[in-house]
């Protein structure tokens, strides 16, 4: 187990044996790994500050291996799915952070949603509580990191959202890495 208090954890929300949403020949797992790798490329605090998931690792294995401390930042990257007309970006935080709009997690989630909306030109669906998901509670948001955010970049099922992702992913991931580094520096 990796026990650490001052690291940033960029997590690709799906892995090799869990493709996540699949739409129009694209797999969420491939997109989240690409986003994570771009995050690493642009993370301004250096790669030594990062702890990554493994592409062949399940969510359960990951959660057993890492133990983010109160001074760490965890960003779990996903792509949303829905009807073809569904559009936008959103972030999820745990119940406690949702109740405290001044928490680091809530503030980081809000910044990520706003930046994504602005850069991709898609609606900002805002910050939501984990209780709004079909699972009700998301383990990855409750591991003890000082700042934990699950980010739904855009809708894999919306061709316009995905076109904007393809055109602007480098710019977007640079900005998201900078936002995460800012919260990493706040510890």
Automatic annotation (TrEMBL):
Every MurNAc-LAA domain range: 63-180
Signal sequence, start to end: none
Superkingdom to which the source organism belongs: Bacteria
EC number per UniProt: 3.5.1.28
Catalytic class of the enzyme: hydrolase
SUPFAM superfamilies documented for this protein: Zn-dependent exopeptidases
Gene Ontology CC terms, in alphabetical order: outer membrane-bounded periplasmic space
Classification via InterPro entries: MurNAc-LAA_cat, N-acetylmuramoyl_amidase_3
One matching Pfam family: Amidase_3
GO biological process assignments: peptidoglycan catabolic process
SMART domains: Ami_3
Catalysis performed (reactions): Hydrolyzes the link between N-acetylmuramoyl residues and L-amino acid residues in certain cell-wall glycopeptides
GO molecular function annotations of the record: N-acetylmuramoyl-L-alanine amidase activity
PANTHER family associated with the record: AUTOLYSIN PH-RELATED (PTHR30404:SF8), N-ACETYLMURAMOYL-L-ALANINE AMIDASE (PTHR30404)
Protein's name according to its UniProt entry: N-acetylmuramoyl-L-alanine amidase
Provenance organism: Riemerella anatipestifer RA-CH-1
